[in-house]
Amino acid sequence: MCALGDIYDALTAERSYKKGMSIFDALLLMTKQMNHHFEEELFNRFILLFTEEAQKA
Predict the structure, then answer these.
(1) Structure pTM?
(2) Rounded to an integer, what is the distance from CA 7 to the centroid of its chain?
(3) Which of 9, 12, 26, 32 has the most CB atoms in a 10 Å sphere around its CB?
């Protein structure tokens, strides 16, 4: 779980040397290039957090 949050933060946070990715782009990159690094069920639940949040907005 910590790895998911750490990677997501690294991708989406704005740094002095790079602009942060959008939520969609970060999750897409994680899905396409990094999903084998995470336990599948945990990663799926992580993604659902963002869909639930988007439905509230």
Answers:
(1) 0.80
(2) 7
(3) 26
Q: Mean pLDDT for each 10-residue chunk of the chain (57 residues)?
A: 93 95 95 90 91 65
Measured CA to CA, the distance from residue 25 to residue 38 in angstroms comes to: 18
Cα(17)–Cα(56) distance, integer angstroms: 33
State the DSSP string of 1-57.
Answer: -HHHHHHHHHHHS-BTTBPPPPHHHHHHHIIIIIGGGS-HHHHHHHHHHHHHHHHH-
